[in-house]
Design a protein that fits this description.
Layout: E1 7-11, E2 20-27, E3 30-34, E4 45-48, E5 52-58, H1 66-84
Antiparallel strand pairs: 1-2, 1-5, 2-3, 3-4
Amino acid sequence: MEARPGMVVRSAAGHDQGNFLVITAVEGDFAYIADGKERKLSKPKKKRLKHLRLTNTVMDMNGLTDKTLKKYIAEYTAARVKESV
């Protein structure tokens, strides 16, 4: 599976370890990620792809705002937690 914008990922390393984020852009071995709360779309975090765990979920990036991204990530996280219980 190849990383692409809009893909939901889980951070495997760093201060945001375990959190779900969305890829906003990909540049070589790096991805720019945001969650709408700590990392806004206007200032995404640059992170190596090897520190991210890809999921099969891809969201539409057209017209995306920090508020809608934050809500989507919260719902996605809640659904994942519910699945694991």
